[in-house]
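Aim 2 progress update. The chain analyzed this quarter is reproduced below.
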Amino acid sequence: MVAGLRRNTQVTNGAVDSNSLAARINAAKTPTDIDSVVSELRDMADGLRDDLQQFASKVREVSSDQLAALVGRIFVFDNVPARFGGKLEDLPSLRFLSDLQREAVFDNAAGWVRRFVLSAATGGKPALINRDAFDHQLRSLFRRVSVAPLAVVFETPDSAVDPVNYQSYGFFQQLDWIDTDFDFVRDCVIHYVHARVARVKWTDTDAVSEAELRVYEDDLKMKWKLQVRRESSRRYASSIVQGQERLTETLAADSILNGQLMPKSITCGSLHALADFDAESDPEIGWHPDFMKMVKAAKDKS
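Predicted structure tokens:
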């Protein structure tokens, strides 16, 4: 047993699934139930994804008695009353925010906590979050969503954005045609996902109309057309060099939606969405000077 081990209380304003591991940990207070949860944790540790291996190694390192002592001292409280957090719509500090703004605050706050804990665990440091630091993050988020709610980037775990999963996408092929380096391609994939998530959030909450989105996309296409026009008076060592400049200069331009300056990830991701294509649809913009010929060839090949 671990000497001096304190009780660990996990609190959430959400509902914990009765069939979840968290529920089983909370209910495990007899030796038999605790041993069952310990076995489950060890089995799970062998199948965790790469970015969670730091946690898996800790589970494997400690003895069964130590792990059992920890499990027996963990309690989970869900559906916590409003005075301790509660439902989002019941929190007084959030009552003047729209659904989109509320979701943005908690999505980004959860993302900050996740990054902090992972960074601390990876660095071998205690994964303890200082209350003042968390409050500072929340105040910053409140300011951001109050001034420019549409410009808030919703968190997307990097582990969920694997460039390999997007190799068949049209925008990914366009980047490959101009020999874009892999690190930058990965950034482009993340931006593409961020912009796609943002658009879903906007439309689901009626924060942006389809007409406003069309105006925004027309503005992005005009920025691309102006860059193409600038290139017409220049000479390039190759089409690839020209395409790389077109990509860089187009992505460097800022964009505005409903009077709000968009973060670079949404601007760039929206441009990649316009460069995307599939078997049924063509891209509206492209990077290589002969991108439409290359799109046709790619479709014929598939």
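The first strand starts at residue 8 and ends at 11. The chain has three domains: 1-85, 87-147, 163-301. These observations will guide the mutagenesis experiments scheduled for the next reporting period.
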